Amino acid sequence: MKGFHMDYGMSARDYLTRAEECLRQNDPKYLFYAALELRCAVEARMREYLANWEHVSKNQKQGWEIAKLGRAAEKAFKGNKLMRWRVLNNATRETKIVLYYTPVTKNLEANTKRLGDYLHAPKDYHPEDDRWWAEFRNLLQEMMMQTKFATTGTLLGPALLKGNRAHLNMEVPPETDLTELQDIGALKTISVDFPDELPATLEPEAIVWKS
Fold first, then answer.
1. Residue 46: φ, ψ to 5°
2. Residue 16 class from Cβ within 10 Å (0-12 exposed, 13-18 middle, 19+ buried)?
3. In the β-sheet with 95-101, what is the strand arrangement from edge to edge?
């Protein structure tokens, strides 16, 4: 169609944004659209993790099956843990930068696989008051929160040691002040830990994607 233009973003955050918009609609059909967008968001996020690492094979980077992508990420990153990377000023011990790797969790993987129960033509009719619809929406809302977690971190995988050097891959929001990042080698002491969950309130020094 002449003059027609549609900017259809394909990052995990783009898919997540569209899924949120669908879930806000008061119309059952939009649940299916939300499910498809969330399925793509999880796949895209897992591929974003794998894309920039040389030790990950081309086939693994181009995969689409959630289970296989999950196994590839777990092998590449030697686990599936949330990681916090803090940069401290040597003299003052002041925190200068906080970075997070927020993985696709096993629970989110499992929920994504469950979408297969809904993304096929149903065998039976489900009236509006059928509990089936509420269960479907609850699954999508749970996945929404899990996917927001997975897309919060700016590290595309945890820091990996190669010899006596740590290697990082990251994608930062466009508005990020990169001054401290550019000076990271001059600072500093690095503190790495693996918390069970993200803090309820993220550190002001954290460089993250805002939902």
1. -65, -35
2. buried
3. 95-101, 83-89, 188-193
For residue 83, give both structure tokens. 């990681």
d(CA 23, CA 27): 9
Cα–Cα distance, 142 to 135 (Å, whole number): 11
Q: Which of 137, 197, 10, 160 is nearest to 77 (CA)?
A: 160
Q: Where are the domains of the chain?
A: 12-193
pLDDT tens for 119-160 read 888 888 888 888 999 999 999 999 999 999 999 999 999 888
pLDDT digits (tens, 9 = 90+) for 176-192: 876 766 655 555 788 89
